[in-house]
Every structure is written in structure tokens, then in C-alpha cells.
Amino acid sequence: MNLNVLDGIKMRLCGPLVTDKHWSQAEIIQYWDERAVAYEVDYVKTDVRHEMLETICKNISLRGPAKILDVGTGTGRVALKLLEQGADVIASDFAYRMVSAAKELRDKRPLSIQDRLSLCVSDFSHLPFPDDSFDYVTACTSLHHIDTDQKRKAAQAFRRVLHPTGSLILADIMFFFDTSQWTMEEVRTKIQTTFFPLESLEDVKKRFLYEPEEWPEEAAFLATLLQAEGFSVVSVERLRDVVGVIVATMQS
Ligand SMILES: C[S@@+](CC[C@H](N)C(=O)[O-])C[C@H]1O[C@@H](n2cnc3c(N)ncnc32)[C@H](O)[C@@H]1O
């Protein structure tokens, strides 16, 4: 197991804090369909989302032609940025309204590049693409709603569609501190204040999707999960206490 890339980061190997309850797929789709408009407002106001975007792009080589699948694309921010940088992108998400919002943003881009970004409504555990189709799969804050078993299935799906020389870039909520030192309320507040602009916080607290039962795992746990699914973890970059970016290749 290649854990040397994790040196210097304080982590424990452990699973989710509590694992007995998870949101159903229908609940998650409904939540995101309802958040499609507000998401764009939150997005442009929170630094962390831009930091994640920059970190994903920095890890993608666009020196040659690159075919990228952005899963859980939401309003397509990652996909659009990669499109503007010259990639061919498929942006997929299971929430139809999120995909529609992404389409609207794509249609505002120059006509000359629009056709290099396709949109697709699909669950990332059942990707409707042939094997070995992509140079990169990017997943930005889209995996944290699902439990460990589903994350394994998603990792297998990403592996199947990636070309043998391809890479997965996973940017998400992940812990870089010893969560046993924190109360659940402290962790929840940390995630909320990292991801939502202050003026949205009161509203967010009323309809906040994250319950302790579906909190994300620690960075080392996610890296180990990817390794168990045949990926080789190249780097784990910590952006905040609760945000990181993992780059993993298919090669050993
Ligand atoms: C926080 S948003 C992130 C959107 C975008 N990646 C970004 O960074 O701005 C999470 C997105 O993941 C999508 N999502 C969650 N689970 C999914 C699944 N199993 N299959 C496809 N999309 C999923 C949601 O519909 C939502 O649009």
C-alpha cells in the first residue's frame, strides 16, 4: 500500500462516524433538484469551491487531447472550466435540474467550444459509457452523500470507464483531523461554514442535508478505499480541515 504520499498529514484510518442510516437515492436527487438555483449563488460566493476547482485543473494535463468525465457535475462548474481549457468533456449528474442549469451555462459559452461539452443524466455508479473511454474522471463534492459500499461501487465504475493510463481526481469533503476530538455539532459547523456563504447559513441549517449518519470519511480512509479498488494514490492534498483532493491513477 502506497501510504508515503499521506506522510505529514495527521490522519486515522477509520470509516464513517456512524453507518446505519443513509439518504435514499430519491431523497438525494430531490434535494439537488431543489437546490439547483441556490447552488449557483452559493458557489460563486465560497472560496473553497474555487480552490477545489483550481486544484482539480492543476492536476490535469491538457498538453494533448484529453477526454474527461465529470461525475456529479451539478451546475457544471468543473466541466465548464475544463472545457474552456481545451478538454472534451462529458458532464453527468443524476439530478435533472442540475444538468439543465449546467446546460444553460454551457450555452452561454462561445459556439465554437460548446459542442465539446456533452451533458448526461446518469447515476455515477451505473455509467452508460464503454470501458476505457476517458483520460480523467473528476468528482468534485459529489461522493460524500453515499456510504462506503456505494463509494466502492462508484470507484469500480470510474475504473471501468477510465483508460488504463487515466486518472481519477476526487475533490471532496474529507477530514484531516482527529474527529474523535470534536463534537458532532463542531464538525457540522465546520462543514457548514466552509461550504456556505455566511448569509445562507441560517437557511442552510434548516434544510441541511448532512446528518452525522452520512458524514464523509477521513482522507486516509478514502485513499485506502481507492487503493483496495486497484487505484494507485499519487497525491492527497489538504485544502481545509474538511476538504481534500486525491489524485489516483490506474497504474501500479
Ligand atoms: C455539491 S454538488 C457538486 C456539483 C459539482 N461537482 C461542483 O463541484 O460544483 C453534488 C452533485 O452530485 C450529484 N450526485 C450525488 N450523487 C450522485 C450520483 N450517485 N450520481 C450522479 N450524481 C450524483 C448531485 O445531484 C449534485 O448535483
Keywords:
about 250 residues; alpha/beta; Rossmann fold; disordered N terminus; binds S-adenosylmethionine
Structure description:
- By secondary structure, the protein is of the alpha/beta class.
- It has one domain (4-249): Vaccinia Virus protein VP39 (Rossmann fold), CATH 3.40.50.
- It is built from nine helices and seven strands.
- It has helices spanning 25-45, 47-58, 77-84, 96-106, 111-114, 148-161, 184-195, 201-206, 219-228; strands spanning 67-71, 88-93, 117-121, 134-140, 162-173, 232-240, 243-249.
- The chain has a seven-stranded mixed beta sheet with strand order 3-2-1-4-5-7-6, with helices on both faces.
- Helix 6 links the parallel strand 4 (134-140) and strand 5 (162-173).
- The model is unreliable at 1-21 (pLDDT under 50).
- Bound molecules: S-adenosylmethionine.
- S-adenosylmethionine binds at residues 28, 32, 43, 72-74, 77-78, 93-95, 98, 123-125, 140-142, 145.
- Residues 28, 32, 43, 72-74, 77-78, 93-95, 98, 123-125, 140-142, 145 line the site of S-adenosylmethionine (SAM).
